[in-house]
């Protein structure tokens, strides 16, 4: 399928993104009556087939932790069925829920961007963050921990210095991660684990890191605090502010889209 | 046992999606674990029924958990396969066009070989004949590593074979692409790539090495099950599925 091929060409990303923005503007959510009329013209099996294509498309993107843009979904998969888009999404959401135990969450209601979030309880000790098979997850965990412990936002230098202490130098090619700076400021950002933004009015430009929306949903702050506690041989409660935050927000982790 | 889809099924499926393929022992352990976590009834001999329930829900999505044998060790494996795209375009989200072309050429080499193997030199040479975009030698080597890592190919001493996952997943594609070339094993009737061949030219049936081992086990004089000629190859030992524990 042609739409999958696009991913392998990340160049011209900003250009492509701008293009997609335009596409999304031309797509207006059809009204209930439009959907109703649209559904009269197609068979149930045709809608199911389209739903299956949407499910597959989302799964492929999710394997790489790439957020799904509604504009892409409409343009590359839904296509001529766009007039019944809400019905197709409804069925896809139901399928993710009933068959895969995943929920499709809109993390950006303005640009209509979705990610998949696991609905099953995290198995004790088996979450990808406790038992990372992918070494990059370990790197990410360190960065998220630093940001969280520093109150939610840090200048990028602090991250680079921390990593250097762990012998991961962003200026050098790392044998496991390759271009560390690219992994952190590009890959993790694209996957919505991190936000990387210029600090306003800085000249030369300085940047800061925050947690991204996917981190809010997938990563438990209580777990981070526990980990920090072990590291420093302290009770997690001794970081009172972080402890309060971890235990007030952890109830929401993975259940709803974040509100910050 | 309940025919209803539950969280134990969903967890099993999620793990299959993360791994792509798992051997029989691994699947059994996983099945048990999923049932324990979600407090559902577990019956050691009901793995296939458990998977059937999942498959009935996956089928409308053109996906399936399919079973197949490893040509290497004769063990059963379970792979999550995508039936919507059974050809190499299935891999197009991970590989560029010229990389897919090289993979196809590698498949050609493997299928047309006697023993189901292609050596790295031949693959590297075929990289020169790519029509899409040429690959440098180093790029080809790197690509082969990726194909092995992604479990499409298996490598042993510089020789490449189709992985179990690849054979299970691309079966329909192989069937249409290579219908005249590819033969099935006389014993198990699945595709035979890595195998022994009857040397009687009028017969020349193929048998997988693990199938050879099982079939001739305990027979004093091995004879071809089709033409009754003497079977001149070395008879491999029957390999016991090694019991291993998974975390």
From TrEMBL, chain A:
Residues 47-246 form the MAGE domain. SMART domains: MAGE (SM01373). PROSITE patterns: MAGE. Residues 1-33, 233-260 are annotated as: Disordered. It comes from the Eukaryota. InterPro entries: MAGE (IPR037445), MAGE_WH1 (IPR041898), MAGE_WH2 (IPR041899), MHD_dom (IPR002190). It comes from Echeneis naucrates (Live sharksucker). Residues 8-18, 248-260 have a biased composition (Low complexity). GO terms for cellular component: nucleus. Gene3D superfamilies: MAGE homology domain, winged helix WH1 motif, MAGE homology domain, winged helix WH2 motif. This is Non-structural maintenance of chromosomes element 3 homolog.
Automatic annotation (TrEMBL), chain B:
It is found in: Chromosome, Telomere; Nucleus. Keywords: Chromosome, DNA damage, DNA recombination, DNA repair, Metal-binding, Nucleus, Telomere, Transferase, Ubl conjugation pathway, Zinc, Zinc-finger. It holds the Pfam family zf-RING-like. Component of the Smc5-Smc6 complex. RING-type zinc finger-containing E3 ubiquitin ligase that assembles with melanoma antigen protein (MAGE) to catalyze the direct transfer of ubiquitin from E2 ubiquitin-conjugating enzyme to a specific substrate. Involved in maintenance of genome integrity, DNA damage response and DNA repair. PANTHER family: NON-SMC ELEMENT 1-RELATED, NON-STRUCTURAL MAINTENANCE OF CHROMOSOMES ELEMENT 1 HOMOLOG. This is Non-structural maintenance of chromosomes element 1 homolog. It comes from Echeneis naucrates.
């Amino acid at each position: 399928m042609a739409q999958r091929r696009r991913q392998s060409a990340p160049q011209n990303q900003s250009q492509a993104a701008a293009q997609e923005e335009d596409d999304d503007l031309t797509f207006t959510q059809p009204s209930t009556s439009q959907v109703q009329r649209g559904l009269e013209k197609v068979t149930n099996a045709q809608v199911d087939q389209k739903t299956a294509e949407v499910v597959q498309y989302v799964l492929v993107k999710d394997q790489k932790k790439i957020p799904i843009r509604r504009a892409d979904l409409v343009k590359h998969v839904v296509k001529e069925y766009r007039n019944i888009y809400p019905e197709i999404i409804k069925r896809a959401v139901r399928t993710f829920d009933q068959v895969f135990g995943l929920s499709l969450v809109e993390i950006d209601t303005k640009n209509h961007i979705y990610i998949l979030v696991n609905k099953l309880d995290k198995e004790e000790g088996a979450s990808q963050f406790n038992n990372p098979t992918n070494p990059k997850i370990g790197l990410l965990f360190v960065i998220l921990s630093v940001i969280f412990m520093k109150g939610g936002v840090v200048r990028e230098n602090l991250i680079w210095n921390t990593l250097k202490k762990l012998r991961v130098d962003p200026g050098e090619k790392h044998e496991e991660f390759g271009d560390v700076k690219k992994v952190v400021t590009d890959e993790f950002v694209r996957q919505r684990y991190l936000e990387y933004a210029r600090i306003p009015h800085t000249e030369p430009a300085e940047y800061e890191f925050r947690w991204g929306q996917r981190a809010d949903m997938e990563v438990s702050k209580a777990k981070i605090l526990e980990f920090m506690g072990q590291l420093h041989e302290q009770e997690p409660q001794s970081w009172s502010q972080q402890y309060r935050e971890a235990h007030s927000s952890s109830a929401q982790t993975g259940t709803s889209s974040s509100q910050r | 046992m309940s025919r209803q889809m539950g969280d134990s099924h969903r967890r099993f499926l999620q793990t299959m999606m993360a791994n792509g393929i798992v051997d029989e022992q691994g699947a059994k352990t996983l099945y048990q674990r999923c049932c324990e976590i979600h407090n559902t009834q577990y019956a050691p001999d009901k793995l296939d029924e458990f998977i059937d329930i999942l498959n009935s829900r996956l089928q409308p999505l053109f996906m399936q958990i399919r079973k197949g044998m490893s040509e290497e060790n004769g063990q059963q494996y379970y792979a999550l396969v995508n039936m919507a795209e059974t050809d190499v375009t299935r891999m197009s989200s991970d590989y560029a066009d010229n990389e897919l072309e090289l993979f196809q050429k590698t498949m050609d080499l493997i299928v047309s070989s006697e023993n189901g193997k292609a050596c790295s030199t031949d693959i590297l040479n075929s990289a020169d004949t790519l029509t899409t975009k040429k690959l440098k030698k180093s790029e080809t080597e790197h690509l082969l590593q990726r194909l092995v890592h992604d479990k499409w190919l298996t490598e042993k001493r510089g020789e490449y074979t189709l992985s179990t996952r690849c054979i299970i997943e691309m079966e329909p594609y192989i069937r249409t692409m290579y219908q005249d070339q590819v033969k099935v094993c006389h014993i198990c009737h699945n595709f035979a790539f890595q195998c022994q061949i009857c040397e009687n030219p009028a017969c020349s049936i193929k048998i997988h090495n693990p199938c050879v081992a099982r079939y001739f086990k305990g027979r004093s004089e091995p004879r071809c099950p089709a033409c009754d000629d003497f079977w001149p190859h070395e008879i491999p030992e029957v390999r016991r599925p090694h019991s291993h524990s998974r975390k």
